Hints:
With about 270 residues, this protein is an alpha/beta fold. It contains 12 helices and 5 strands. α4 packs parallel to α5 (about 105-115) and α10 (about 205-215) packs across α11.
Amino acid sequence: MNSIYTKSRDVFIDTVNVGDYVQLDRVSTIYQSLKDSIKKPLKMVLLFGKPGTGKSMFLSKLYKDLLESYNIYLYQTPIIDESEFYKTLAQDIFDTKYNGELNFTQFMKIINSKDLKTVPVVLLDEAQLYSEILMEKIRLLSDSRTIKFVITLHKTEKEDVIAKEHFQTRIWETIELENASNVELKIYIQKKLMKANCFDSANVFTQKSVNKIYSLTNGNYRETNKLLYTLFDIYATYEKNNQLFEVKTDRVSHKLIEMAAIHTGLIDA
């Protein structure tokens, strides 16, 4: 039987699981804006932010929430080959299997030969991995209004993606995701644990301990998940070796937080 520490550790496994979505006021408002954007006559919607701010989770939740009411498709792993990209869309959206290479012109012919009652919505995660050539074709598809795209892109330090000229004329809505504040981070941590019925673990996180975690992760959800996974793994190891007497278990040890930060590479040893 898993201990409370291994159970708490597994809450922070770094995977995209819609069931793990944590409702924060600001995040929920942003998500509602994303849902509302689907109803608008937009050619393309851009969801951007630094890695670990929840873009993939947003797309997965959007897909789950709209699956029954929209003709919607989610591609979490980029389809790099241009021909395979068109063939996948042709198969999934238009139920058309195409043998051999499929280019943009041929794909447009498939689209024009179909009479869809609603515009299909295609969710593309990690769009920064697509080539510039393929992204230009995706933009042309969005311009045709035959397919609506919602794409996620990483926001870089050197360049704000929405400032690129090729986005300015085609994206009608941009939604930015940011790291959590230290107050939001406490709510995030405690809600994740309470959703898994790890109430004792949730209660050991004071604002002071969360401030320590925030100083190491800057409120980034992915980095926080990695840190807390490692932290609870350390507690589980102490428990297994009957060494829990060495630390206080009624509050999170700053020493163990720092140890977990070293293990995850957030700080140097």
